[in-house]
Amino acid sequence: EKKKREKKIKEKSNGEKAKVFRYVLLILIAILLIVGSKYRHIIGITFMKEITEDDAIIIETTTSDNKVYAYQNELLVYSKGKLETYSRYGKKTWEYTFEETFIPEITTKGKYIQVVNKNNGYIYVFENKYESCRKKIDGTIKRASINEKGQSIIHYSKEGIKSNVGVYDKKGNEKYSITLTTENVAKVDVSPNGRYAMIYEVETKGISPNSLVKVVDLNNDDKVTTSLEVSNDTIYDIKLTNSKIIAISSDTVYTYDINSSSKREFKTDDKNISNIAIDKSGIAYVCKEISDESNTIVMLNSKYEEIGKHKYEENVKYFTYYNSLAVVTY
Known about the structure:
By secondary structure, the protein is mainly beta. The protein is built from one helix and 28 strands. The chain has a four-stranded antiparallel beta sheet with strand order 2-1-28-27, with no helix packed on it. Strands 3-4-5-6 form a four-stranded antiparallel beta sheet, with no helix packed on it. The chain has a four-stranded antiparallel beta sheet with strand order 7-8-9-10, with no helix packed on it.
């Protein structure tokens, strides 16, 4: 009889705990709904591919002159010498203050953040929001990027060398150094697996530009090969994967397969394309409507078939496309 009474008391206690938990959960949901409605005027939007823009939770930042990026599932904001991250509900989750205020070049890949200060030649690398590297480049930094392994690639010039590319591990140790014959480098990048380095050069002869993309095999004695050459067309954005180069002009998507050395061109129905992002199953790009100055993000699968489209009345400042679409507008 005593055991039965103890069992009833325990069941009653557990029931009350479950009821309290449900109340707490309802309160938390209500708070999140209030926060979502409060941060209505915005520059950052994040939503998954299978839902619409109406389902997006909107986050408001404090000033309009911020540099805003997508970082993992959060927004990364730089303003007046300070880095901050915000959750999708508008809550500040991290901040880092630099010793000086400068105009940075920022790249995010996976858990890594790369911040370049061209004023003093410093490169900062953050891994999961912890500073893992602070390196001084002996020269003038021109271009920089980082990959998902935390490897940095830097294009710089210094005394006696007008154009050099260095690849560094996440601790700042130089692993490769390549001297170039041209200074007309528009972009550098490292593949996610760290095997290839990409050097994108632009040459202007007469009226029409020529784009030349070189790939360096870092596992094969730094062998440099010319992988993609585009004549009489302007490349507005270019990306490197583990096996492909994907570039985009005003109305054409160019794909180069590094392993097979094959090139593919795809003419889009859209015009005035400016930026591209890569998902593991396809690509997305931004095109601007001249008539009403709106912006549309178009998503394509690996066969270049359209699988989604979202229109924005504001300017699309920055976006990423990896499992989900993260969009920053202003």
